[in-house]
Specification:
The complex is a heterodimer. Chain A is mostly beta strands. Chain A has strands spanning 3-5, 10-14, 19-21, 24-26, 33-38, 44-50, 56-58, 64-68, 73-78, 87-94, 101-103, 107-112. By secondary structure, chain B is mainly β.
Chain lengths: 113, 114
C-alpha cells in the first residue's frame, strides 16, 4: 500500500528565505511522486513529478525536489521565497495499480514580508 | 482548451436533498477522477473512470454515484445529502492510466450541506 506523510501542516518563511517542505512516502512498489500547489480558491496545479528518470527534479516557479530512496523522502525546496509562493502544497504518490493518487494532508506555506 | 471545468462553483444543500456536480474536459483524456478535499486531510478519491461506460470506486465512495456516458463528461451524483458531505470537490483527468501520468484538476465545487 502507498501512503504519504507531510511534516508540518503550516510553514512560515520570510521573503527571500529558503523554502523546505517535507514529504515522506511509503510504497510497496517503486514510487512515482508528485508535488501539487493549490492557490487560494483554485484547483491543484502540478509543480513537478518524479518518474525515476532523475533523482533531482526541477519544476515550475523555481521549485525542485530530490528523491532519496534511503530516506523514503521527496522534499520540496526553493532557494528564495516570493510572496506569490504563499499557497498550500500537496505531496502525492501514485498507487500500485492505475493512475490513482494518494495525497498527503498538505502544507500551507506562508511568506512574510 | 478550457481544460477541466466544473459547475457549479458553490452550492448549499439541505439535508436529504440531491444534486449533480458537473465535470467536463476537452483534452480527450481517457481517465477521469473525483476527489473530495477536507481541511487537514488532503484529497481523497471518490470514484474514477478509465473510459466511457467504465467506472470504479475509490477510497470514499459511500453516498455518491457516477456515470460516464461520453469521454468528455463525468458527473458526480449526491443522493440524500448529509452534513458529512460538506467539502470541496475536485474533478481531474489524465490522458492514460500510467502511474507517471499527470492529472489535471478543475477549479472545484464548494458544497455545504445544512
Amino acid at each position: 500500500a502507498q501512503s504519504v506523510t507531510q511534516l508540518g501542516s503550516h510553514v512560515s518563511v520570510s521573503e527571500g528565505a529558503l523554502v523546505l517542505l517535507r514529504c515522506n512516502y511509503s510504497s510497496s512498489v517503486p514510487p512515482y511522486l508528485f508535488w501539487y500547489v493549490q492557490y487560494p480558491n483554485q484547483g491543484l496545479q502540478l509543480l513537478l513529478k518524479y518518474t525515476s528518470a532523475a533523482t533531482l527534479v526541477k519544476g515550475i516557479n523555481g521549485f525542485e525536489a530530490e528523491f532519496k530512496k534511503s530516506e523514503t523522502s521527496f522534499h520540496l525546496t526553493k532557494p528564495s521565497a516570493h510572496m506569490s509562493d504563499a499557497a498550500e502544497y500537496f505531496c502525492a504518490v501514485s498507487m500500485e495499480y492505475g493512475n490513482k493518487l494518494v495525497f498527503g494532508a498538505g502544507t500551507i506555506l506562508r511568506v512574510k514580508s | 482548451n478550457a481544460g477541466v471545468t466544473q459547475t457549479p462553483k458553490f452550492r448549499i444543500l439541505k439535508i436529504g436533498q440531491s444534486m449533480t456536480l458537473q465535470c467536463a474536459q476537452d483534452m480527450n483524456h481517457n481517465y477521469m477522477y473525483w476527489y473530495r478535499q477536507d481541511p487537514g486531510m488532503g484529497l481523497k478519491l471518490i470514484y474514477y473512470s478509465v473510459g466511457a461506460g467504465i467506472t470504479d470506486k475509490g477510497e470514499v465512495p459511500n453516498g455518491y454515484n457516477v456515470s460516464r456516458s461520453t469521454t468528455e463528461d463525468f458527473p458526480l451524483r449526491l443522493e440524500l445529502a448529509a452534513p458529512s458531505q460538506t467539502s470541496v470537490y475536485f474533478c481531474a483527468s489524465s490522458l492514460r492510466g500510467r502511474r507517471t501520468d499527470t492529472q489535471y484538476f478543475g477549479p472545484g465545487t464548494r458544497l455545504t450541506v445544512l
